[in-house]
Please model this.
Amino acid sequence: MRTEFDFAPLYRSSIGFDRVFNLLNNPQRLQAIDTWPPYDIVKSGDDEYRIVMAVAGFGEGDLDITQERNVLVVKGGNSEEQQGEYLHRGIAGRGFERRFELADHVRVEDATLINGLLTVSLRREIPEAMKPRKIQIGSHGQDKQVLQIEADQQAA
Model:
C-alpha cells in the first residue's frame, strides 16, 4: 500500500523549499531499505555529525567515499581473492553502496577506519550571508535615508 501526499498547499506559503518537496516525492526513497552494512548517525554538537559504519573485513583501499553536491556516497568492494574452499561463510564480504542525503552547507571533514568501524565526520557551515541579520527600519521619503543592514553599518 502506497500513500501519496499532496504538498500543493505548502507551495502557497513557502519559498525555496522545492528541493525538500522533491526529496519527499522521490519514489526511490520508498524502495526496500538495505540494512547492510549497519551504521549509526550521531549528532556530536550543534553543527557536527558523525556517521559510523561497521565495515569489518574492508581495508582503507577497499572503501571509496565521495561527496556529490548534497549526497554522500560510501562504496565498498572487497578485492581479496578467495583462498581455499569455504565450508561456511558467515562474514559478509560483499560489495555495497550506501547513500546519505546531506542538508545544504554540510561538508565532510574527515574519515577514519579503526577496528572495522568507518567514521565519517560532517560539519554544517552556514555562510555569513545566510545567518540571521537585524534590519533597521528607516523613514521612507522624509529624509531619504537608505536602509542599511546592522552588520553593514558597523563595517562602515
Notes: The mean pLDDT is 76.
